[in-house]
Write a structure and sequence with these properties.
The protein is built from ten helices and two strands, in the order H-H-H-E-E-H-H-H-H-H-H-H. By secondary structure, the chain is mainly α. Keywords: DNA-binding, Transcription, Transcription regulation.
């Protein structure tokens, strides 16, 4: 019991330092010896707490240097999703369904963003001459479009979740778009345009419909 309380004390201490702003991404943590003295714990308890923080992607340990706030939670989530897919505990269909539900939440927040004008202009640039671009460029722009929507929501949790999911199925989406015919790509582009226009014209209902249509097109080309 004492060991469990000890490593949790380390985790809570580091999280409190982050919350207070005393530690930011790239900041070095106090040394193991300092944490041992500050928290009045054994070296083993401190090390166990640091290992847990590293497993969560909150810190990164550099041999011979120290422990630093890493901000790599998204990478850890990505690896978890990849492992679950390989182990067949979840399917790509479930990933797509989950991403759709998250993107609907993202859109709601993006729509309410009072400073969304700058983002809308960037969406316009991404969509310009979309269909005339080579396939690889279309895939890059599609990724940028959805990432920009997430940025517009200005929610770090959604940003982390969407980022980790996007990395998992990027190659899969590339295969789907490669196999999609011109009509399918045109419909996908039209859905993007409708999402963009819904934000520019303050039409939330149309935007939600466009996102639903976007994922319907993807699903039709897979299942």
């Amino acid at each position: 019991m004492s060991t469990t309380r000890g490593f949790e004390k380390v985790i809570n201490y580091v999280l409190e330092l982050i919350q207070s702003g005393n530690l930011k991404i790239g900041s070095e943590l106090p040394s193991e010896r300092q944490l041992t003295n500050i928290l009045e714990l054994s070296r083993n308890s401190v090390r166990e707490g640091l290992r847990s923080l590293e497993d969560m992607g909150i810190i990164k340990s550099l041999h011979g240097s120290g422990n630093y706030i890493s901000g790599s939670i998204s990478e850890n989530m990505q690896r978890s999703f990849e492992s679950m897919i390989l182990l067949r505990s979840i399917s790509m269909k479930e990933i797509i369904s989950f991403r759709k539900s998250i993107e609907l939440s993202v859109y709601e927040l993006a729509f309410e963003n009072k400073n969304k004008t700058v983002y809308i202009e960037k969406l316009s640039v991404i969509l310009k001459d979309f269909l005339s671009q080579p396939l690889e460029e279309q895939i890059k722009r599609d990724t940028k479009f959805h990432r920009l929507l997430v940025s517009m929501a200005e929610n770090q949790i959604l940003d982390i979740v969407m980022g980790s999911i996007s990395k998992v199925y990027l190659d899969w989406v590339r295969d789907v778009l490669s196999d999609m015919d011109n009509l399918g790509m045109q419909h996908l582009h039209e859905a993007h345009l409708r999402i963009y226009k819904s934000l520019a014209e303050e039409n939330k209902v149309e935007g939600i419909r466009a996102i639903e249509e976007h994922y319907s097109i993807i699903e039709k080309n897979v299942w």
